[in-house]
Design goal:
Layout: H1 8-19, H2 26-33, H3 40-47, E1 50-53, E2 62-65, E3 69-72, H4 73-82, E4 92-96, H5 103-111, E5 118-122, E6 130-131, H6 137-147, E7 154-158, E8 160-161, H7 165-168, E9 176-180, E10 205-209, H8 212-221, E11 231-238, H9 241-254, E12 260-267, E13 270-276
Parallel strand pairs: 1-4, 4-5, 5-7, 6-8, 7-9, 9-10, 10-11, 11-12
Antiparallel strand pairs: 2-3, 12-13
Length: 277
């Protein structure tokens, strides 16, 4: 017997209720999408909202989809080839480098995410670092396009080295920025250079972990980047006495709208937390 046709707004409410239940139950949502074609599109909007491609067991061809199911790299490529429309539903993407998919197809997949709001780029493990210059050129170009997108709200770079300075100049255009164990190439000038940032900074939340050279670069070259910041979380790692004290003082001076400041310091073998409200 055929199921009664429900109004679309009722279907939307059912799916939204399930999707927003914590913790997120992808299996239940997937099962619901099989009930009727009327449930498919709205279910996919939530099922593919977050994509996490992680290297599993350090095998370059294995990844995790949406943190809920394991999927091989080849299956992910098949998904893109057969159902490219689902990539426009992606809002959050965690990508670990190296990625098994390279070349034009990698770029096509990244570029298909036309509504991406959160992008996180990380190495697979603490002991590995991504060299920006050695990322597959097609993939690197696609990542740059996403970073330049006006829709992107949050950027996280974890264990990335040789970040090009032309990208650093755009970091004030995000609302949230998180940098962990990351650094740029050699800095060429000690003079401020806010000209590269042609629109007012939108940055309200800044988190930096053991990436203080980048913090120093932003303070010197792009001080206007700090004009709207409300929350700062800095992990200095091993505290470098007078130099880092001066850096922290400069930071507090720049963030005139700050509501919360937290710094972690390691000095004389002890960790210290510094709060400022």
């Amino acid at each position: 017997m055929a199921l009664p046709q429900l109004p679309q707004d009722i279907i939307d409410v059912i799916i939204q209720t399930i999707a927003e239940t914590s913790p997120f139950d992808a299996k239940q949502l997937g099962d619901l999408s099989l009930v009727s074609r009327a449930f498919v599109e709205q279910s996919q909007r939530y099922l593919f909202r977050t994509i996490s491609l992680r290297r599993l067991d350090y095998k370059p061809s294995s990844f995790r989809l949406s943190d809920n199911a394991d999927i091989k790299g080849s299956a992910f490529q098949d998904l893109f080839r057969t159902s490219p429309h689902v990539f426009r539903y992606i809002r959050t993407w965690l990508l670990q480098i190296p990625w098994a998919i390279t070349g034009p197809e990698a770029a096509a997949i990244i570029n298909a995410c036309t509504r991406l709001q959160v992008l996180e780029l990380a190495s697979p493990s603490i002991g590995e670092v991504i060299d920006w210059h050695t990322i597959d050129p097609a993939l690197r170009s696609a990542l740059i396009s996403q970073i330049h997108s006006t829709l992107l709200d949050k950027l996280t770079l974890s264990r990335v080295k040789h970040i090009p300075q032309f990208l650093l100049a755009t970091f004030g255009l995000f609302t949230r920025l998180q940098l962990e164990y990351s650094f740029s190439s050699h800095f060429h000038s000690s003079q401020p250079n806010d000209a590269a940032t042609t629109v007012p900074s939108k940055l309200t939340t800044l988190s930096i972990k053991e990436s203080t050279p980048l913090l120093r670069f932003f303070l010197v070259h792009h001080p206007s980047m700090f004009s709207q910041i409300l929350e700062v979380d800095v992990d200095f790692g091993r505290f470098n006495g007078v130099e880092d004290s001066s850096l922290m003082g400069d930071l507090l001076h720049k963030v005139c709208k700050i509501k919360e400041f937290h710094a972690i310091l390691l000095t004389n073998g002890k960790f210290y937390s510094v709060y400022h409200h």
